[in-house]
Amino acid sequence: MKRLSVFLYTLAAMLLGVSCSDYLDVTPQNVGTLEYAFRNRNEAENYLFSCYAYLQRGADAVTNAGFTLSSEIIYPNNLSQRPINEVGFNLIRGLQNAGSPALNSWDGDNGNYSQFRSIRICNTLLENIDEPVDLTAAEKTRWIAEVKFLKAYYHYELLRKYGPVPIVDKNLPISASIDEVRVKRAPLDSGFNYVVRLLDEAAADLPVTITNQARELGRATRLIALSLKAEVLVAAASPLFNGNPDYADYRDKDGTVLFPQAYDAGKWARAADACREAIQACEAEGLRLYTFIQPATISNLPESLRQVLTIQNAVTERWDLNAELIWALNPEFGYQGYATPRMTKESAVNIFSNPSTFAVPISTADLFYTEHGVPITEDVSWDYTNRFQIQTGTADTRYYVQAGYQTIRGHFGREPRFYANLAFDGGIWYGNGQLDPDKAYYVQARGTSGLAGPKDRNTINITGYWPKKLAHYLSVYDNGFQPVHFRLPMMRLAGLYLLYAEALNELNGPSEEVYTYINAVRLRAGLPTVQAAWSTYSNTPNKYLNQAGLRQIIHQERRIELCFEAQSGWDLRRWKELQQVLSRPMQGWSVYETEPARYYQPTTVLVPVFSQRDYLWPLKQNALVVNPNLVQNPYW
C-alpha cells in the first residue's frame, strides 16, 4: 500500500466522493489519471491495496463500537490530556445525536470513515480490471474475488450499524441523473442476502490459505470468507434483525417495508450450515484451538500459569504461530500501554510512557465464572454474599494472587480466564521481563503510593482493573514501554465454535453437538463440561437442559471467551441485551484509598445512558436533506 502514490489517493477522493449523500457530486477533472492507475499490473496492484486500506483502519479498536460500546472497558472522560479519540467510549454516556453522529461510517466523520467510499473504490477496480495487459488470468480471478470479499465486508459493517442500507453493486456513471443519485435504502434481508452472495462468489476463487505469509498475510482467503459468511448469517438470524417488533411496519417513503416483520427460524438453519461449513474448512487446513508451548527460555512454569498463557496468547501470539487465528488485520494493536499497570519503580517514575487508562468495571470482572465453571451468582460452594471481604493470598494461590497480600475474596477461586483477562490489586502479572514464576510481578493499585495507583489526571485507572489480555506477556513496562506487538483477532476458531453452538441451540435446542462445541472452548480454558459444571455446582442444575437456559450459558460463554476482542459490543447489540447491560451504573474500587477495607468499597464511576433507539446508528440529518429518498432510523 505504501507504493500507492499521493496522486492516486487524490484521484480516489475526487472521483469517489466522501459519503453516500454526496454520491458523485464531484466530477473528475482528468479521466486519464484513472487510466494511469490501471495501465499495468503494478499500478493496478497498488489500487487493489487501496481497497484494503479502509479495512485496515478497523484495527484501531477505539473506533470500533464492538470494543467501545461493550461495557467491558471504561475510558475516563476527565483527563486533562486526550491521547486517543474517545468519541466511541463517550457513546455509552448518551452523547449520540443525529445532527453529528459519532463514529459515522455512513458519511465518514466523527472518528470514522465512509464505508460507501470504500465500496466505490472496490467497484472502480472491478470496472477496470481488464485494463492491465500484463495481469495474468489467475491473478485477475483472485483479485476480483478479494474485492468482492471487501465489498461484502463493507456492506456488512454498514448493515450491523444502520440496519437497511443502499446496496452499491456498481458505481453510477458520471451522467447519472439527480434521481439516480438519490439512492434508497434496500430492505434489510436484501442487504444480508447481497453480502452472502458476494461472499459465496469470493470464496470460490480465493486461496484457501496464504502461502507467502511474508508478503500477503492479511489478504482475504477462503477460510476468512466462509467464517465471515457464518458471522453474517448469525447476525441476520439474531433478535435485532429477525422479526424485531421494535421495527414493526418500518417503511421508506414509497411504502417499502425495510425490516422483516416476522421471525424466521430458517435463518438459524442457514447460519448453522454456514458455521459448520466454515469449521470443517478451517479444521481441514489444520486450524485448532491454541495451546501455549513453553519456550526453552522459561523453566519451572506451573500448570496454572501455563493455562493463563494459553488464554492470553490465543489473542497475542504471532499470526503465523497461532493455529487458532482465522483472521486479523495487519496493523499492530496500539493500546498495550493503556492495558498495562505500573509494576516496577522505574515504571512509576516514567508514568507518561504508559497511560494505563483502560479501566474495566466491576461488572465485567463479575462476568467470569468460578473455578467450577459456573457464574459466581450460581456456584453453591462460592461465597457470593461475602465476596468483598478481605482475604490474604497464600502460597497455594501465589500464581494468581500475591502471597501475603490483602485483597478480596472475590479474587480467589475464579476460572483461569479471570486471571488471564484481568489485572487487579494483588493479582500476579507473569511476564514484563520477569520469567521466573516465583518472582513474578504483582499489581499494587491502592492509593497514590501504590505503584499502579493514581498518579495524576492523565495516568489513572478509575476502576482498579486493567484488561490484561490486551498486553503481550513479553512486553515490558519499566524504564519506558517496550511492546511485543500483536494483531487483534477479527476471528478465532473458538468464536466460530460458539457461533455454531448458538445457531444449533436456536434452531433445535440443546443437543450433544451443541455441548461438544461449547465444551471444546471450556476444556481449553481449564473448565469442566457444561453438563458436569451445572449438574454439580450450580444452584440451577438443569439450566443447560432447556433452550432458554442454554442460550444464557452460550451468551455468557461468548462474552467471557471473547472479552476485550471488539466482539461483545456487537453480540450484545444483535441479542438485544445491550440496553439491559447498560441499565446499571458502572462501578470500580475507591482507587485513592490505601487501606484494603476502604479501597474495596464499590463506587460509581459512570452512569450509562442507552435507550431503544441506540441499537441502530442515526443517519446524519444533513444526509436526509441532501437525499430526500432516505428515511431516518426508528426513534431518532
Task: Explain this structure.
The structure is a single chain. The chain is mainly alpha-helical. It folds into two domains: 6-291, Serine Threonine Protein Phosphatase 5, Tetratricopeptide repeat; 303-317 and 333-486, no CATH class. 39% of the residues lie in helices and 6% in strands. The chain is built from 25 helices and twelve strands. The strands form six sheets. A two-stranded antiparallel ribbon has the order 1-10. A two-stranded antiparallel sheet has the order 2-3. It has a two-stranded antiparallel sheet with strand order 4-7. Mean pLDDT is 93; it is low at 1-31. Residues 107-224 form the SusD-like N-terminal domain. Residues 324-636 form the RagB/SusD domain. Keywords: Cell outer membrane, Membrane, Signal. Pfam families: SusD-like_3, SusD_RagB. It is found in: Cell outer membrane.
In short:
Keywords: Cell outer membrane, Membrane, Signal. InterPro entries: SusD-like_N, SusD_RagB_dom, TPR-like_helical_dom_sf. With 636 residues, this protein is mostly helical.
CATH class of the largest domain: Mainly Alpha
Q: Count helical runs.
A: 25
Total number of distinct structural domains: 2
Major beta sheet, strand line-up:
1-10
The gross shape turns out to be: globular
Termini gap: 39 Å
Q: What share of residues are in beta strands?
A: 5-15%
CATH topology of the largest domain: Serine Threonine Protein Phosphatase 5, Tetratricopeptide repeat
**Major sheet characteristics:** 2 strands, antiparallel
CATH architecture of the largest domain: Alpha Horseshoe
Q: Structural class of the secondary elements?
A: mainly alpha
The helical percent reads 25-40%
Domain SusD-like N-terminal: 107-224
Domain RagB/SusD: 324-636
Organism: Dawidia soli
Signal peptide: 1-24
